[in-house]
Amino acid sequence: MLTLKCLASGSTGNCYVLDAGGEKLLIDCGIPIKQIKIGLEFDISSVQGCIVTHHHQDHAKSVSDLQKMGIPCLRPYLDEKPKVAKYQFGIFTVTAVPLFKEHWLHTNSDGSECPVYGYLIDAEGRRIAVFTDFEYIPMRFSKPPVNAFLIACNHDDSMEQDSGKFLHSVTGHSSLNTVCGIIDANKSAMLTDIILCHISRDADPVRMVEEVRSHADPWTEVYAAEAGLEVTISAFPF
Q1: CA 182/CA 170 separation, integer angstroms
Q2: How much is the pTM?
Q3: Tens of pLDDT along 66-115?
Q4: Omega of the bond prior to 32 within 30 degrees of 0, cis?
Q5: Which of 11, 27, 130, 174 has the smallest count of CB within 10 Å of its CB?
Q6: 130 and 137 in contact (C-beta within 8 Å)?
Q7: What separation, in Å, do the N-terminal and C-terminal C-alpha atoms of the chain show?
């Protein structure tokens, strides 16, 4: 059984646990190490590694603590040049995908570019796509198709443009319309679960779930990530 558990999601911190029959993979570690340990029920030995999307503290806060505990942390954003590369963490095969097309598709608070990676994770015959903090995704995933998306849906496109957060939100963060377009481009008979993460506090998660569901196939479940959410990812929709 393959399950995804959300320990935290949003601007204050992001961390998820992918569990494949007892082997676990951390996705981002942007919360205090004590909170991560509690979320793992202190079963540290089952953690095969942690994949980190980018250097911002709400995604990478506990990297040093995890490394001190002997847990390998994948941080491809430290490389000088963007590249696709494959890694193995126990049962998990991880493909790192640079979110780059002429420039990095995420920004720092001052507007400068921020290297950021998405991931394709293969385990137990399923493929999970993880994408957070991006302006758009310049690729499709069809061979093999994705079974589940863990994808940032940061803000609603109807956000007030005179809001102090508007400029930062629209540069380097995915909008609801962007996510709907990504789902339109990647629908398949195998896509069973979509988890919307990193939702802005100014956005309405219920509306976002409803809108994304309207773009997904009838058998695809859509969730808003929040602490405590657990999703069992199925290989077959029927």
Answers
A1: 16
A2: 0.93
A3: 999 999 999 999 998 999 999 999 999 999 999 999 899 999 988 899 99
A4: no
A5: 11
A6: no
A7: 16
Go through the chain and tell me how many residues it has: 238
* CATH-assigned architecture of domain 2-232: 4-Layer Sandwich (3.60)
Amino acid occupying residue 116: V
DSSP state of 161: T
Q: Which residue has the tokens 């963490």?
A: 89
Residue of 238, 187, 237 lying closest to 212 (CA atoms) = 187
Alpha carbons 180 and 148: distance in angstroms, whole number: 14
> What gap in Å lies between CA 212 and CA 216, rounded to an integer?
6
Instruction: Give the C-alpha separation, 67 to 169, whole Å.
Output: 31
Location of structure tokens 């290989």: 235
Both structure tokens of 107: 């920004």
